# Entry
Amino acid sequence: MNFDHYTGRVNQHLSQYLSNQGSLTEVMRYSVLSGGKRFRPILTYAVAHTFGTDMNTVDASACAVELIHAYSLIHDDLPAMDNDDIRHNQPACHKQFGEAQAILAGDGLQALAFEVLATDEHLSAKVRIALLQALTHAAFDMAEGQSIDLSVVSKSVDISILKNMHKKKTGSLLSCAVKLGALISECNSEDQQILENFSQDIGLAYQIQDDVLDVLTPEDVLGKKQNSDAEKDKPTYPALLGLEASKIEYKSLYISAMNGLDLLSVDATHLKKLTLQLQDRAF
Amino acid sequence: MNFDHYTGRVNQHLSQYLSNQGSLTEVMRYSVLSGGKRFRPILTYAVAHTFGTDMNTVDASACAVELIHAYSLIHDDLPAMDNDDIRHNQPACHKQFGEAQAILAGDGLQALAFEVLATDEHLSAKVRIALLQALTHAAFDMAEGQSIDLSVVSKSVDISILKNMHKKKTGSLLSCAVKLGALISECNSEDQQILENFSQDIGLAYQIQDDVLDVLTPEDVLGKKQNSDAEKDKPTYPALLGLEASKIEYKSLYISAMNGLDLLSVDATHLKKLTLQLQDRAF
# Structure
């Protein structure tokens, strides 16, 4: 089983949402539709599928979470931030359109993400509000996480600071992608808690794995510069724990994530397969 | 009558919302609580007051619209955008904290604005969704307006292009401030339309007046650099129409705005006084 149908589905809806957005359309389309693994929307779809939820009710959330992710990449790549020139094997947004339009495209994408959720007619106002509460909070945490990330450059930090930073910078939006799927499915509070634990495990695992892949993966596969964190003197898991211990750490988190899924009130095969695929990803 | 009690009210709530927001707290407080006329929240409060609406139901909207405005000022001042070093008579956010933290504080404020609305327990989910639809749309238009603004620097444009740009860049959020007050008050569709026309008149009047004040007002009163638009070779109303014709234009828009208010199903004295005070502002 693979999850390409979710990718196709979210891409189609993203393209529709970005088809007629005035003067920012071209810049936003360039950054959003040029690639990306769509891991966050896939998570949202997969969780909703696990509960037998109508996929038409999931599209807006899947798009919204990806739009937030896309805006964060545009802003993170800016010279004042991580100063990365390549993203998805093409010039970063600010290299293609200039810094001003890149900042504004990011700003516009954030607003659009929330508008997409607020205007989705498939869901009740009550569910939409729950989704918006989750996504606005995650988006805020993500910005704060990036702020912490920049503040620790060239500094000696311990693993708890690194973990807190990653929890906000990467984990918050990944957890939210899972939570959106749970909220749309209106699943019971036990299942919500199990999914919350699952999402925190895979959120941290994903980031540690990213740090490992950043060291091991060639640039053309990664779609961005290899070893860029170390060159920027950013603290990473491999730098703090060593490469092998980091691999063990993220693999054990994926195992914990999968074991937790056994407690769900519904069959978790679909989510387990996704978790295995994540663990085996090469970039 | 003055409207200082609204300013005090929104400042108090903004300070509460910004009291415990992690590592971005200091940067956000610096920019949001350092001054500003609070014109947008005052509009929201004044419209709601006109319909006898409980002010406790208005605070979140008043804060949200100001948080969006505050984020836009932080991003607009960036070197890649308008490159302004002074805001509210103090160093602009990026001069005080660096560009990266300024970008992230702006990003965080945008997310927080929507979170404040989504989590406001004073309003039903249905009303909150209506407010979020209005504010997300306005925030998107605002970003697009700034994008158009930057694209017309040093270009010869006609008045219709200038008007469209201002309608999005400044008008959309001002109109939204009025609309939020109307939506919270759940006023009838005729009144909503009258307020829509009113908000469009004052939105454009306010911007033309800003262009005029930018030429006429000393820096210490303006709280930012005088004549900065002309120095940046941005098209302005005084540059296109002349100073006197621009004054006549904005004053006639304020008159039109006030006349329209007579059609409301409720007494409009409060909103008229606010409009007169706006017209007489010195900065």
